[in-house]
């Protein structure tokens, strides 16, 4: 469904490649988390998916990126937009309207849905993100977190097959962060949407994403199940990415000889582990 | 107070079709231009203030009128000194300061300025910019591209100001004294901020354009608009009133 073949990209005027020699496949219905340090190329990766690279950001493009069988170099971003929806990292610059309702309507109107469909999707997406009360508010008067929800709603309303989000929870409180991930999980499980999310909170990725990509200075240094990070703890420490505390706890208990089972990667598994440890 | 900001409300004025509002405001201005009588001009301004009061906008209207009055005063002085028709009115040592013709044309011009600007500026208090643009697209088939440019420009005003204040605060934190009363000193402090401001704004415009494109901007057609802007009875009444007003102003 999505394939990167030896893909490299170097922004015009920049010395170093933002991404180099990336090869990977993402199948329909996957839930992929991307993590990495600042400047690692995470945003560039999402741009490559939506065709902004190379159509908007000029530079040297090597290799091939295919989305739904279409070579992104040969297809205009508007065409890709029919099945890829992207929430940008910089929320402010993503906004095209001054009122929340119009922001969500914008894409829906453009893609030419019928009136009833637009009404349904508008209300649905507002409700899904719990921002129905913000419907008629001026976007400039919203808080950072509220804007983030509006931006996500405006993309989810389009119901794209591939949902790409670049650090969408940066300004959200923990509760709203969980809500966003729950929504994405539902879209992924119930509707088979492919979800690709850049996120700094490793705990959330371990909990929700099945697959984890780690980028470091433009290179893909880890590509595997998020559950398997317990076996690569050293790699993560080396990269300066904190593994979830439950993983550390599990490893520590194992080290002390108190626990022999599977190392937990989320709270539920940790609960099981602690029950087992405390029982004996 | 931002003079162009929308004031929410549900008065009869708010409920008119945005296109009607635009044309009514425009034609009201025309009425102020066609009339040759200072009295009619004064009546038109008073009428405008009365209508705004009925719509609950008296504060905004008076504030605007005050600001326009300053502009009017300026034009009054200029006109008074430069128009030299009619009888001399104030003569000192054989030097004529102003004439009757100058006085009447100065009065007419300054009231005319207030009379034409007031309805146009009040238009923004009762109409959301995006409603106005969408209605123009829907009802008059103005190309969406232009409407989008205008709404975007308007949207950037508050964004621009917050950005400006952010940069200003950052500079203040570094000990730059913006509170100086000296205008020239202040300007010389502010001027260097415009470059970073311009760059960050251009960046925003640019990524805004990308975002618009990714959400199908190019696919848009005339039929795309979701909101409808039908004309109603009140729009008809408004049109008749405004036409009568123009006719009256032209005759008197
Ligand atoms: N428009 C651009 N022009 C030139 N270089 C760029 C541009 N955008 C990004 N880069 C460079 O490409 C590299 C990768 O940037 P990218 O934005 O993809 O990183 P990121 O992983 O998203 O970082 P962050 O976590 O800070 O968002 C960086 O070295 C950056 O300086
Ligand atoms: Mg980024």
Topology:
The complex is a heterodimer of chains A (280) and B (252).
Chain A: E1 2-11, E2 19-26, E3 31-36, H1 42-50, H2 52-55, E4 59-67, E5 70-71, H3 77-80, E6 84-87, H4 91-94, H5 100-110, H6 115-128, H7 144-156, E7 162-166, H8 174-191, E8 194-198, H9 202-208, E9 211-216, E10 219-225, H10 233-239, H11 245-255, H12 267-279
Parallel strand pairs in A: 3-8, 3-9, 6-7, 7-8
Antiparallel strand pairs in A: 1-2, 1-4, 4-5, 9-10
Chain B: H1 12-15, H2 18-34, H3 38-54, H4 58-82, E1 88-92, E2 95-99, H5 100-126, H6 129-140, H7 144-173, H8 183-190, H9 194-214, H10 233-251
Antiparallel strand pairs in B: 1-2
Helix pairs in contact in B: 2-5, 2-10, 3-4, 3-5, 4-5, 6-7
The complex binds adenosine-5'-triphosphate (ATP) and magnesium ion.
Descriptive notes:
The complex is a heterodimer of chains A (280) and B (252). With 280 residues, chain A is an alpha/beta fold. Chain A folds into three domains: 153 residues, P-loop containing nucleotide triphosphate hydrolases (Rossmann fold, 3-Layer(aba) Sandwich), CATH 3.40.50; 64 residues, no CATH class; 37 residues, no CATH class. Chain A is built from twelve helices and ten strands. In chain A, strand 1 and strand 2 form a beta hairpin. In chain A, helix 5 packs parallel to helix 7 and helix 6 packs antiparallel against helix 7. The longest helix of chain B has 30 residues. In chain B, a hairpin with a 2-residue loop joins strand 1 and strand 2. A two-stranded antiparallel ribbon of chain B has the order 1-2. Chain B is mainly α and 252 residues long. In chain B, helix 2 packs antiparallel against helix 5, helix 3 runs antiparallel to helix 4 and helix 3 runs parallel beside helix 5. At the A-B interface, helix 4, helix 5 and helix 6 of A face helix 7 and helix 9 of B. Magnesium ion binds next to helix 1 of chain A.
